Amino acid sequence: MSSSEKISVEQYKETQLQRLESGFVSCADLLTVNDYDDETDKEGFYVIPSAGDGVIGRYRSLKDMENDTPNIIVRKSVYDKLCNADRILKRKSGYKNCQIIVTYGYRSPEIQAKLYFDILAEKKENYPSLSDEELREIVHREIAFPDVAGHPTGGAVDVIIFDYKKGKFLDFGTEICQFDSKNIYYASDDITPEAKKNRRILRSVMCEQGFAPYDGEWWHFCYGDKEWAFYSNRRELRKKGDRKDIKTEKKVLYRQKEFSEISEIIYNDKFKTHVTDNRLRIRLAVQKDGRLTEKTLSILKRSGIEVMQDKRGFLAKTDDFPLEVLFVRDDDISKLVDAGVADIGIVGENVYRENASNSIIKKYLGFGKCFLALAIPNKPDSDIKVLQDLNGKRIATSYRRLTEEFLKEKDIKDVTIIDIAGSVEVAPLIDYADAIVDIVSTGGSLRQNNLKVLASILNSQSILIANRKSERDIEKKNIIDQLIQRISSYLTAKQFKRVNMIVPKASLLQVVEIINKREKIENMDDSVEDNIIDVEHNTIIDMKLPVITPIYGHEEEWCSLQTVMKLSEIWEKMEELKRLNVANILFFDIEGIIN
Ligand code: ATP
Ligand code: ZN
In this structure, are residues 481 and 544 in contact, taking their beta carbons and an 8 Å threshold? Predict the structure, then answer.
C-alpha cells in the first residue's frame, strides 16, 4: 500500500459518511432483498485456473487464503462470464497482452462473519459516537454484512488487470483493498487519467457480461447475489421511469454456501483443461528481500533463467523457462510449497525443518550455509557449563520446534522457551533469557553480544523443495526436473575446471595416476555438499579421464593433457605435478555440464 495517500481519522470518517449518503447500494438496501432461486442455486462451483494468459485466479496475499485452499473458487457462470470479459478486454486497443486476474472469489460465511466482527469492533472503538446502523454501514463498506455478503455465494469477485508481457498490474489508482485510501471509490477524481481509463475499461468489460459493479470499490463485481439483484432491479426501475406497476424480475440466483458444501469440487482438479495458455508454468517461491535473494536469483541466472524482480509485485514470469517466481518472506516459502500455492521453493533448511514441512527436498544448493546454535553468555562464572545445566533455564528463540526437539533428544526437561522474532542475541544481555537458539554463520554477532556456542543443533544451507502433489503431476514434474537439471549443471560446473597442462612424456604415467587419485573430503564441515558432489561424480568421471594429445614437433619429449578437476583438487595436486616437471597448467571455467 502506498502511504502517500493515507488519510486521517477525521477525513476517513468524512469520506465514509459521504459514501453512505451517495447512491451506493447500502447494507440496508440489501437487507430488503431476501429470496433466492432454488433452481439456479443448483449451479456448481469452479476452481479458476491459476496459470495461463486468460482469466486466472490468484490471491494477492497469503492472508487471503482463509478458506484453507490456495484456489479461487466461483460459480460456473461467473467463470464463463469472466472468460468472456477477458476475451473482450484483449480486443480493446492497448489491452492486447492483458488478462483479468481474480484476486478473490468465494469466501466461507464463517470467515465473512469473523472479518466483519473484527472490523466492527475496531470501528466501534474509533467512532464511539456512531449509531449501530451507521456503524453497520461503515463496516459494510469494507467487509460486507454477513447476511447479505456476496463472496459467500461464489458470485462476487475482486478483479484487476495484469499485463503479462510487461509483468505488471495496470495502474488503478490504488491497490486492491487499499481501504486507507479515499481513492478506492470507483469515481474518485484524485487519480491519474490512466487509472481512470483502466477502471472504466474494467467496468465496461465486466458489466457487458452482466456483472454488477460496486461503486465503493473499483475492483468488486458481482453476479447472482443480493447486491447484483438489487442493483439490476434498481437500474430496470430507473429505465422504466415512474411506472411502478411494472414488476422488476431479477431474483437472487445464488445462496450463500458453507465451505463444507462445496469443498469436494475444490480438490477436483479441473485445472489443466481450462488453461488457455498452453504453456504450463511451475511456480517457484523465493525470498523477497533477504540473505538468500541475491544468490537465488544469481543461480537462476547462471542456469539460463533470468527473472526480473518487480519490487512491488509479488509475481514475476520468465521468458526463458516456463516458470513463475513468487517473491515472499522466507518463513512463508515452505508453507506455500506445502500448500501447493507454489510448486517449488528455495529456502533455508532451517526454515524447512522448523516448519516441519512435508515437501520433498530435491536439491542442496550449497549457499546460505549456517547452523542453528545454542549459545550462552561467555562469562567465566556462568552456571551453565554443559547442556544438562540448562535445566530450569530460559531459552529465547524463534526456532521453538527445533529447540524443543533438541532438548527432548538430550533429555533436558525443565526449560522455558521464550518465543521472540528478532534480535534474539540481546535476550541474555537484558536478562530476558539465560541462553538463546539462533542461526549463526560466522559467529560475529554472537561474539559482539558476548555469547558462545554451547551446541550446534542443525547445519543448514539453502535447499530446493517441491510440493508432493506437483511431483506426482507428470507435466509439472517434467518442468521441475528440467529446472533442477539446469541448476545442477551450473552448480556442478561451478565446482570443476577444465585443465590443460604440458606433461613430460617420461612422467606421463605418474601424472595420470595423480590425476586419477580420488580427492579426499577436504572439509568435514562441508559434508552435506560433498555428498551431493558424490552423487554427481558419475557425471564427472568420464570427463576426468585425461585426454592426451601429442605436441607438434615435440612428440618425443612432451604431450598435452586435458582433464576436468575440482578447483580445490588443482591446488592440492599442484605441487606434486610441478615436481614432475609439468608445465603450463591452465584452467578454465565450465559453463555447464549435461550428462
Ligand atoms: P524475511 O524478511 O524473508 O523473513 P529473515 O530476516 O527471516 O527474512 P534472513 O536474515 O534474510 O531471513 O535469512 C534468510 C536465510 O538465510 C535464513 O533462514 C538462513 O537459512 C540463511 N542464513 C545464512 N546465514 C545466516 C545468518 N548469519 N543469519 C541468519 N540467516 C542466515
Ligand atoms: Zn470483494
Answer: no
Q: Which one-letter amino acid corresponds to residue 396? A: A
Whether 366 lines ligand 1, by a CB cut-off of 6 Å, is: no
Q: Which tens digits make up the pLDDT trace of 402-452? A: 999 999 999 998 999 999 988 899 999 888 999 999 999 988 889 999 999
How far CA 156 is from CA of 113, 230, 236, 323, in Å, comes to 16, 14, 21, 30
Position in ligand 1 atom list of the atom nearest CA 293: 11
Residue range 218-259, pLDDT digits in tens: 999 999 999 998 888 877 777 766 555 555 566 889 989 888
> What is d(CA 217, CA 82) in angstroms, rounded to the nearest whole number?
18
Structure-block grid coordinates of residue 181:
485510501
CA dihedral 103, 108, 112, 113 (to 10 degrees): -170
Q: Locate the ligand 1 atom nearest the alpha carbon of residue 350 and give its number.
A: 20
Q: How far apart are CA 300 and CA 321, in angstroms?
A: 10
Using the mean position of ligand 1's atoms as its centre, give its distance from the Cα of residue 447 in Å: 18
Residues contacting residue 44 through CB under 8 Å, at least 6 positions apart: 75, 76, 265
For 400, the enclosing helix (H) or strand (E) is helix 400-409
CB-ligand 1 contact for 333 (6 Å cutoff): no
Find all residues with CB under 8 Å of 28, minimum gap 6, and list them: 133, 137
Q: Which of 288, 289, 309, 330 to mutate to test the pocket of ligand 1 (most atoms within 8 A of CB)?
A: 330
- Provide the strand spans (E) within 110-201: 156-163, 168-169
45 vs 368: CA distance, rounded Å:
44
CA-CA distance, 293 to 303, in Å (whole number)? 15
Ligand 2 centre distance from Cα of residue 140 (Å): 11
Proximal ligand: closest to the CA of 227? 2
Q: Is 294 a pocket residue for ligand 1 (Cβ < 6 Å)?
A: no
Q: How far is CA 357 from CA 252, 361, 408, 503, in A?
A: 43, 10, 20, 53
> Does residue 64 have a pLDDT over 80?
no
Query: Could you identify the atom of ligand 1 that is nearest to the CA of residue 291?
Result: 11
Q: Measured in angstroms, how far is the CA atom of residue 528 from the centroid of ligand 1?
A: 19
Q: Over the range 248-263, which residues count as b (16 or more CB within 10 Å of their CB) and which as e?
A: eebebbbbbbebeebb
- Nearest in space to 441 (alpha carbons), one of 421, 463, 456: 456
Per-residue cell: 9: 481519522
- 593 CA to middle of ligand 2, Å? 50
Name 47's bridge partners.
73
Which runs of E-coded beta strand occur in 235-296? 282-287
The rounded distance, in Å, linking the Cα atoms of 150 and 116 is 13
Q: Cβ(296) to ligand 1 under 6 A?
A: no
Q: Any idea which ligand is nearest the CA of 64?
A: 2
User: H or E segment at 278?
Assistant: none
Ligand 1 site, residue 115, Cβ cutoff 6 A: no
Hey, what amino acid is at 582? V
Mean pLDDT of the chain: 83
Sign for the CA dihedral angle at 66, 69, 72, 77 comes to negative
Q: How far is CA 451 from CA 63, 375, 426, 572, in A?
A: 37, 6, 9, 36
Which residue has a Cα nearest atom 13 of ligand 1? 291
CA distances from 132 to 11, 26, 254, 275, 340 (A): 20, 14, 28, 46, 42
In angstroms, what is the span from residue 17 Cα to ligand 2's centroid?
Answer: 20
